[in-house]
Specification:
Number of helices: 6
Helix content: 55-70%
Number of strands: 0
Length: 85
Amino acid sequence: IKKATERIVESLPWTKRLDEVRFAALVNMSFQLGNRVLQFKRSLACIQDERFAEAETHLLNSLWAKQTPKRARRIARQIATGEWQ
């Protein structure tokens, strides 16, 4: 049985192409934010287009990043680099 957090991320069909690290970063976000992770439209569009550094910038300019800065920096860096943080 898939976790609800994974199902949220998998509701975006293109996430199947993501590497394990970036997919896990989105699952981590959905664990904290639930379906609200889908509201990060610019960031998600950048991730979909493999513009990972740009996605990092958008993520770090969000209210979410202001509210949970350490977690946001870690997840955004994971998306940008494709490396576990």
